[in-house]
Amino acid sequence: MNSVKPRASVPEIVAVTLLSLLMLIAGVLIAANYGNFAMRGQPGTAKMLSSEAMPRGMIMSADQNTEQMKGMAAVDPAQVGYTASADARGDRLLQPQVVNGVKVFHLTTSVITWHILKNRTVAAYAYNNQVPGPMIRIRQGDHIKVIVTNDLPEATSVHWHGLIVPNNMDGPPPLTQKAIAPGSSFAYEFTPMQAGTFFYHSHVNADRQEALGLYGAFIIDPIKKSLKYDKEVDIQLGEWTVRGGRSYPAMPMEGLLPNFFTINGKAYPETEPIHLRVGQRLLVRFIGTSSGFEHPMHIHGGPFKIIATDGNPVPDSARLLKDTVLVAPGERYDVIWRARSKGKWLIHCHINHHTTNDGEEVNGAGGLTEVIDVD
Question: Which pTM was predicted?
Answer without folding.
Answer: 0.86
